[in-house]
From TrEMBL:
This is DNA-binding transcriptional regulator YhcF, GntR family. SMART domains: HTH_GNTR. It comes from the Bacteria. Signal peptide: none annotated. It comes from Agrococcus carbonis. Keywords: DNA-binding, Transcription, Transcription regulation. GO terms for molecular function: DNA binding; DNA-binding transcription factor activity. InterPro entries: Tscrpt_reg_HTH_GntR, WH-like_DNA-bd_sf, WH_DNA-bd_sf. Gene3D superfamilies: Winged helix-like DNA-binding domain superfamily/Winged helix DNA-binding domain. Residues 6-74 form the HTH gntR-type domain. SUPFAM superfamilies: Winged helix' DNA-binding domain (SSF46785).
Length: 119
């Protein structure tokens, strides 16, 4: 399902990225075409194409003329690395700032995190 909180083309790109990260699309595998994505997601083909274009521009997908789009070599690791940095910016940095404001030590924070799955 597409994340409706962001532009559709960006959500399309993230859905393909998720498929690469979870192993649905391995390196050198083809990804759905613009028309297939548009039909499946019920969106305009231009929107689907723009999402795929983002991934081509980022080096995640490669175009093979007359054949389609394929997952680039090293795409999974590059995506994983990029998302780790984003995770740090979006979640870890604010968490650490809030913990500091509340006087939570790094040890206490680590303890909270390790206890969480047991809840």
């Amino acid at each position: 399902m597409l994340d409706e909180s962001k532009p559709l083309f960006q959500a399309v790109a993230e859905q393909i990225e998720d498929g690469i990260l979870d192993g649905t699309y391995a390196e050198d595998d083809p990804v759905p075409s613009t028309n297939q994505l548009a039909a499946f997601l019920r969106i305009n083909p231009a929107t689907a194409g723009k999402g795929l274009g983002l991934l081509v521009d980022a080096g995640v997908l490669v175009k093979r003329r007359g054949i389609g789009m394929f997952v680039a070599e090293g795409a999974r690791e590059a995506l994983r690395q990029r998302r780790r940095f984003a995770f740090e910016d979006l979640y870890i940095a604010p968490l650490l700032r809030e913990a500091a404001q509340l006087g939570i030590t790094p040890e206490e924070l680590a303890s909270m995190i390790t206890k969480e799955p047991a809840r």
